[in-house]
Design a protein that fits this description.
alpha/beta; binds 3-hydroxybutanoyl-coenzyme A; binds 1,4-dihydronicotinamide adenine dinucleotide; 48% helix; globular; single chain; 29 helices
């Protein structure tokens, strides 16, 4: 079955791309489009329209073909064929036109878009650039600056804006096919206007400043700058040479490890939703969400639910924290409104929020998320109380960071309805949600958690029960590796720098200052009773804590914030740290990164082996969306595969010469190396 349909309607050729789910431009589609154009050239139709079947126009090139041998016709050839057709071809765009999908439309002679359609060139998010003429045709149509904004930001624009800047020619009304046929009828006899024949664009207003700002924003990522080079080529080369230059740069990016990492991230984000045992399990209906506790997390969770159009009842202990919660949610909504993230009228969103002091207010809630203090006794009391008021079938969720969800579930008479929903701070912004599945959690409760995440615009990852689940457990290990280096003589500033250079937005000690050194201290105290005698406590962090250097909120932590929020290195902090250091070894930046990453990968391998994370890719998504792991490395497991697992294991053996308690190789890592396999091999195990 060809994915391209061709029909004639009153001497209008209707070419339909039907390749579900997103009409990606896979080989058969490219082949079919070339054949359709050839047929149109030969038959007696006056004009043709290309449209997409289903919910969108075309979602882009077929990403699953990347990295494999290219099968002709290539996409640039298809687009050039469309453009070279002497009879006019119209793109009739609805839903979404992304990447190669928009490039097909740009090869057409006229473009009609339905209201609200999203048009974008997001290729740089995959480590490549628009490679089917997008960098040459877009600036010819909309000018250099608008094209550079679209391509380097990767953000789609709406049809209405596209009309304003000249990317499309008309906004259709009503039914897509009817609107397309009517437009084609109007355009009968119009010339086959070629975008490629339009005048070359003039360079942007301030190219040097644009390049500098972009370099700063993307930190280490290569594709956006290379894409800017390709757009810039459109201003000085002929259209033909510009296309050749675009192709050269595209093929170069296609070969980079960043491209492989970014595409791994893309597919992993989709794979995490495929959870063992959930296929065909219907989620429960959720319309009314309860939240207990309106502090940092509760207020954020309530905001996220309100932004998704849900009704929210938040329960606090007292009037003062209830008022604070209302104020926080209000300012969160103000900010969301400014960013255009509010669906519907503000008034109705405000009305959807009810703040109460009594658990009775939750009797009608479909899902209740507890976000009170991190204390088992407090949480168990809350769950006992909930058990008494929640309606039958309501889902009872805890946002605990570390505590045992099984123990919390046992405080109720309905452990099958209890699940962990571990949001990240700020909960209305961070995209990760760990869905912590306890021993007795019912499959439809897990399915509901995943459905809710989708509704909230979050990426959900299934996690098993252990101290810290996937993310925080791995964090505490790689964080310890950094602390050990400081104990042994490294400067926290050098470690932060090395990890920023690796691609993290912030180093671990900047993160400490942001979170507050009191949080880390409290965690250490909590864990002290169960600590192993050979665990090394970061006494320098305790010393800073005792000196009142609690981080940003105190104006000083590892860094000094007296002048600005960026923070400065502080000799006084270094003096306090030096007093607590046990030796004065020096570490190279490379060594710092290798230790940090080896600790992360090793603990992650244990987490996978124990079934806490289903696959290595689940770990990658957690680290990417919850812990600022640089996306173009694909995630720690993809990074480890790219390094070669043998090398990571050798690193661990080398580090273990100094500390064989901390550096115990994960059995899974050892086994994979012995078998000559990679983490990616474990990802291929398809969920049923
Ligand atoms: N190629 C191959 N598969 C794709 C794909 C693509 N371009 N886009 C989506 N898919 C797959 C997904 O992997 C998923 O598969 P699964 O069901 O097996 O997990 C399925 O299609 C549905 O995808 P989503 O869950 O993402 O569907 P949504 O409805 O939420 O979103 C979308 C649709 C907005 C089109 C989104 O899928 C998307 O953003 N896709 C990528 C768009 C993109 O980056 N295009 C540029 C490609 S590169 C290019 O065109 C190069 C050119 O310049 C030469
Ligand atoms: P917080 O201290 O800011 O807020 C807790 C709120 O719960 C307070 O407003 C308090 O008045 C209220 N509260 C306490 N007992 C209550 C009760 N019985 N009934 C109603 N309200 C009650 O704490 P935070 O940071 O919001 O943390 C909440 C939970 O979320 C904890 O379990 C924490 O581990 C977890 N968490 C925290 C993250 C963070 O970054 N702060 C991230 C992810 C999870």
């Amino acid at each position: 079955m060809t994915p391209i349909r061709y029909e004639l309607v009153d001497r209008i050729a209707v070419i339909t791309v039907a390749n579900p789910p997103v009409n990606a431009l896979s080989h058969a589609v490219r082949q079919g489009l070339v054949e359709a154009v050839l047929r149109f050239r030969k038959d007696d139709a006056d004009i043709a329209i290309i449209l997409g079947d289903g919910r969108l126009f075309i979602g882009g090139a077929d990403i699953s073909e990347f990295g494999k041998p290219l099968k002709a016709p290539s996409l640039p050839e298809v687009v050039s064929d469309i453009e070279a057709c002497p009879k006019p071809i119209i793109a009739a765009i609805h839903g979404t036109a992304l990447g190669g999908g928009l490039e097909v439309a740009l090869g057409c002679h006229y473009r009609l878009a339905m209201p609200g359609t999203k048009l974008g060139l997001p290729e740089v998010t995959l480590g490549i650039l628009p490679g089917a003429g997008g960098t040459q045709r877009t600036p010819r149509l909309v000018g250099f600056d608008a094209a550079a904004d679209m391509i380097t930001s990767s953000k789609p624009i709406l049809a209405e804006k596209a009309l304003e800047i000249g990317l499309v020619d008309r906004i259709g009304q009503g039914d897509l096919r009817d609107a397309a046929l009517a437009y084609a009828d109007d355009m009968r006899g119009a010339p086959a206007r070629q975008t490629g024949a339009m005048a070359a664009p003039v360079p942007g207003t301030d190219l040097a400043a644009r390049r500098t700002a972009l370099t700063k924003r993307i930190r280490g990522e290569v594709a956006p700058l290379v894409a800017l080079d390709a757009i810039e080529a459109s201003t000085r080369l002929s259209f033909r040479d510009g296309l050749a230059e675009e192709r050269r740069l595209f093929m170069h990016l296609m070969d980079t490890p960043q491209r492989a990492g970014l595409i791994h991230a893309f597919f992993s984000e989709r794979a995490v939703t495929k959870v063992d045992g959930l296929k065909g399990v219907a989620p429960r209906d959720i319309a009314h969400v309860g939240v207990i506790g309106g502090g940092t997390m509760g207020a954020g969770i309530a905001t996220a639910a309100l932004l998704a159009g849900l009704r929210v009842t938040l329960v606090e202990r007292d009037n003062a924290p209830a008022d604070r919660a209302r104020a926080t949610i209000g300012s969160n909504l103000d900010a969301a409104q400014k960013r255009g993230k509010l669906k519907g009228a503000r008034e109705s969103v405000d009305k959807a929020l009810n703040i109460a002091l009594d658990y009775e207010a939750l009797s009608d809630a479909d899902l209740i998320i507890e976000a009170v203090f991190e204390d088992m006794e407090v949480k168990r009391d809350v769950f006992q109380a909930l058990d008494n008021v929640a309606k039958a079938g309501a889902i009872l969720a805890t946002n605990t960071s570390y505590l045992d969800v099984n123990q919390i579930a046992q405080a109720t008479t309905r452990p099958q309805d209890v699940v962990g929903l571990h949001f990240f701070s700020p909960a209305h912004i961070m995209r990760l949600l760990e869905v912590v599945v306890a021993d007795q959690t019912a499959p439809d409760v897990t399915a509901t958690a995943f459905a809710l995440a989708k509704r909230l615009g979050k990426v959900a990852v299934r996690a098993g029960v252990c101290d810290g689940f996937i993310g925080n457990r791995i964090l505490s290990t790689y964080r310890a590796a950094a602390d050990h280096m400081v104990l042994d003589g490294a400067s926290p500033y050098d470690i932060d720098r090395a990890l920023r250079d690796f691609g993290f937005a912030m180093g671990p000690y900047q993160v400490s200052d942001l979170a507050g050194l009191d949080i880390g201290f409290a965690t250490r105290e909590r864990k002290a009773a169960n600590a192993h005698p050979r665990d090394r406590r970061p006494v320098f962090a305790d010393a800073l804590y005792h000196a009142g250097r609690l981080g940003q909120k105190a104006g000083r932590g590892y860094y000094d914030y007296s002048e600005d929020r960026k923070g400065r290195e502080d000799p006084e902090a270094l003096r306090i740290i030096a007093e607590a250091q046990t030796s004065q070894r020096s570490f190279s930046a490379d060594d710092m990164v290798r230790r940090y990453m080896a600790a992360m990968v090793n603990e992650a391998a244990k987490v996978v082996d124990e079934g806490i994370a289903a696959r290595p890719l689940d770990v990658d998504v957690v680290l990417l969306h919850g812990y600022g792991f640089p996306r173009w490395h694909g995630g720690p497991m993809h990074w480890a595969d790219a390094q070669g697992l043998e090398r990571v294991l050798q690193d661990i053996a080398r580090f273990a010469q100094d500390d064989d308690h901390f550096w115990q190789p994960a059995p899974l890592l050892t086994k994979l190396v012995a078998d000559g396999r990679s983490f990616a091999d474990l990802n291929r195990k398809e969920a049923p």
